[in-house]
Amino acid sequence: RVNPDLASERLAASFSVELLTASLDGGAERTRSRRAVVEAIENDPVFSQENQYFQSQNERYEAAVRRAVYLQKKIREMGWTENGPEVQYVNRCLSGDIALILHRVFMRSISMLGSDEQIAKWIPLATDYQIIGSYAQTELGHGTYLQGLETTAVFDDATQEFILNTPKISAMKWWPGDMGRSATHTVVFAQLYVHGKCYGVHPFILQIRSLQDHSPCPGVTVGDIGPKMNFQHTDNGFLQLQNVRVPRENMLSKFCKVQPDGTYVRWGSQKMNYFTMTSVRISILSDEVILPLKKACTIAIRYSAVRRQSKLKPGEQEAKILDYQTQQQKLLPQLATAYAFHFIKIYLDELFNRGYQDIQGKNFDSLPELHAFSSGFKATVSQQCTSGVEICLRACGGHGYSLLSGLPSLYTRIIASCIYEGENTILLLQTARFLIKCFMAVSAGQPVPPSVTYLSSVKPGKCPAKDKLDFLSPEIYLKAYEQMAIRLISSSAAKLQHFIQSGVDEYEAWNQCTVQLEKAAKAHCHYITVKNFVETVEKLDDEAGIQKIMKHLCDLFALHGIFSNMGDFLYDGYLTAAHMDLVTASYLDLLAVIRKDAVPLVDAFDFTDKTLNSALGSYDGQVYQRLYEWARKSPTNQQGNPAYGKYLKPLLQNTLSKL
Amino acid sequence: VVTMVMNADLRRERAAATFQPELLTNVLDGGAERTRRRREIEALVINDPDFQHEDLNFLSRSQRYEQAIRKSSLMVMKLREHGIADPDEIYLFKSFVHRGHPEPLDLHLGMFLPTLLTQATPEQQDRFFMPSWNLEIIGTYAQTEMGHGSHIRGLETTATYDPATQEFILNSPTVTSIKWWPGGLGKSSNHAIVLAQLYTQGQCKGLHAFIVPIRQMGTHEPLPGITVGDIGPKFGYDEIDNGYLKMDNFRIPRENMLMKYAQVEPDGTYVKPLSDKLTYGTMVFIRSMIVGDSARALSRACTIAIRYSAVRHQSELKAGEPEPQILDYQTQQYKLFPLLATAYAFHFVGTYMKDTYRRISADIIEGDLSELPELHALSAGLKAFSSWVANAGVEECRMACGGHGYSRCSGLPDIYVTFTPCCTYEGENTVMMLQTARFLIKSYMQVGSGQRVTGMVSYLNDLSRQHIQPQHVAARPVSVLINDPVSLVEAYKARAAWLVEAAAKNLQAELNHRKSREDAWNVTSVDLVRASDAHCHYVVVKLFTAKLSEISNAAVRAVVTDLCLLYMLHGISKNAGDFLQAGILTNTQVNQVNQRVKELLAIIRLNAVALVDSFDFSDNYLGSVLGRYDGNVYENMFEWAKKSPLNKTEVHESFYKYLKPMQAKL
User: Does residue A443 lie in a domain region?
Assistant: First the structure.
């Protein structure tokens, strides 16, 4: 029984939801196979997430381990392949609430960094889960800056071993997932010392727990780092090493090696690995970053169509909160953002696939561009999706604050993505470095990658728009974005030059410009995102109203960006104060247009109720009934109230002083 | 806890400060004597073994609730033991006992008792007040329902008078009418003041308050006809049993309706209250207090993030040199220092709001209600403005601490989840902004019709003298001096005036398109919120600037002036669009502002640690390993982690249950 307030929204759809879903999936066949996988998982009680909001850290961890173990069985039963699309669908539908994720990173790093013999020895053991791996890089004192790691590995030629040590507290490994309780082995990164000379950070395979009774190996202190904002199901760990010895063969040696006599030799190129590391940043975007925003939009928009509050007109029924302009202005730009990023992810995948082919052909020219794109987009997409999820959370008022809404968990999880795989500010500055280089090259008449040729555009004069409708024309707003990105990049470059010419050291000049550089990098990514959205819409078939609604979303995304960054756009001079009034008018008009399709647009993301796991966001819109039923299942209502006997009763009966 | 000497970085930072933090602390407290007394009250709590307990981060929700109840019970007794009776001092004692967290008796002390005092008849006070004061009755205030929050006229709970038995029959007629959210309702309270639609003689008389017993005295079991429980886990507020309450034909005597103002006579005749303006005084008070809460949440977050940024070293600025403190990176300063300045701004505004409330409520008691509308509008807008900014600011501080900020040991997740509901409770922020906008538009119309307006909106008087353009009005030209706080206040004033006028004109334009008033209001609401936001921003910079001249010590005044400038210039930089569009600033000036912001970052950098030390949070209250006063962060993170529940046994039981069998099978 669907709540009539939601049913009426669906009747009014201007496009085919099913066709849009298929288009988002990349074809109807994929939609079908995705749904089959989701059904298989959701019908299996082992994977139920029903009670997760009521569970303690210990219970969450245990459930995640159980799921990880059963999933191996399930994959075999169903005949799915480890790297096939089905397993991706599984991960998506489990929302990452599963243990032993780092086991895969452990295996990948051995494949990437290990010699053929090492791969032959360790990969089969890991594949069969004879051992469980983790990946120990980050330390208490060092995250982003790898060269600063302090764990040491000293070569002892007498025994042909490395002696691993944690020389001080800040050198303790901290954060690695699956390490606190589960892993038996880990790849540990340490400064290599041979005969007193430091050769920098190298990876070593290290056993940390007994394969018999799981107790820590001698010299190893290992445990869980304690409660976090989310990831209660993951045992992020600490690791302290005291004279732990590993054989010489345990240093991963695809690219370098310590020979028995202590001679250090290095060979080959790490560029392929560099590419892999870079592409990891892009690979997390779909499931860990964009998907949570889609879910949050689904929950908040469906709830806003069901929640009625206050009257728009006296005498009428209370209005759906989705009919309030302020609510539309909170939610609909997030919806447009979710679509914009869905499409930018496709763009990035294509860019990386082309890059991969180049690299296979030993052409490494595209690496700097790929690195800059992966850094910049990882940062901007994670930042905007995070703030989008938070906006959705707060747009649901008090009920959004209940864990049962699903929104707090989505939020606390997605925020971690702003830090892992590279802290966002640092990543944006890496992108900025690339952009500055390209700008210099362009100025000197040298060639640059196609994605940044816009930097050589001749500066236009004024925006020709005269009417608010002109701002629904992509050429008009794209030009404004392009102009702003060029201006921010060129003025950062000029300022940097200015500092350096006036005698400031280069590093200091860079630090003095970083606030502006970060902004320039964001502007670049924003421009590319808008441009890609425009190009995607142009390529869509005008089938079943899809192109039309996507064009509206694209316009909204673009105009929202201008409306929210007015100062930067006005500063450029391309847009005038009068233009801003037109932009605002067009922007607000679009809210009312997209409002009509808001529910169908989130339905198209095609989340099952179980995947959403939200009392507010389910497909049938029976919000209050569900909230009440779920609350009654809470342990606080199912179990007695120990506080009553101990404290409340004496308090009520004034006997507390006798305690 | 590992005790060690102070971290060398922090020692150096403190030695280099250009002012004495103690003097600034006194400014924040409102005098040296108040600083002394605050510390004395905190010492009573810290030195009391009854108030010690395990780190809350390691406790389950039930355990946290239990700890909170334990401490609340003790707190009530100890307040009396120590003879603490002044409301400000009670508030301090309570926040030290609960370390800034809410507690299950909040609604009993903050709503149930005051409502009895203001709305109960003398006879009702005799029956209910002393038992409640002595905690034989624990009460809560049940207003919000599942389907209705901000719009209280829409509440659905009914109280129907039955003259035959002289009782009210209380009902929750729909699922949406179930009372939902009241703190202390789920498990702690045995009574509730319930807001319900009153029906008598077949007519609905609107919302009224009733005292409803919900649990049996002695056994604490729910009474027949009452369904009551906890609403389940939330983002934060683990220590509170926010509850639900469903009533089925539950009868209470006629005398349980709070009848100081409105009354129902035994035969069912309804007697109207004289004035209902007084009842929203409590709301105004709580909203005014939230400005101070915003300041505190942000100050705590800044203390943690800035101390940690002085201790944390990472990467290299210059090749070959030691890793710098992350506080030396411009991007880090740009994240944190504007927030530090904001925390100071909100402290001063919070104090102003509290004082103003006291002054005006004295007038109200004298029967003078003239300033109430402005205070109401100001408290609504500033509540929203400050809580939005602080909410985002706390998160920004957490993000600035990288991965470790994500750990509960940083204390930052807890500050965030505890603070964020401020944006919703006591009036959802957008709704609040629109209330302020209504007052601004009304004032603007008054000016248009020739009346003068007073108070914070008096700048609107100047607008009427301008020639009114049909479209796109340029703001009154201001010659802005970017190093002069007074001149910058004028710029903010011009921006507020410009945005209020623009919103008013857009509203008028919509009305001219023959839209109904309500539709016109709705399609202008984005503009209206912008106008309110600019008005509140102006009030904040005005009050902050006014505070500067009150600081007597020159060194302290100098640093606070830098903060004030940073606050204002950063605000301009962030909202440059408004200042440019209104023609208040030129491109060149915006450029100068951006440049000046960066210069101020470098200046404030010198005193950053001393500026957070001045907030004077004890480690106990701060609850953060990253923000410890002595800066021994890493050692204590390790100590903390060892206490994690997952570390209770060396080998976790799931190894035997799942991992080992898997390894054996595969």
Answer: no
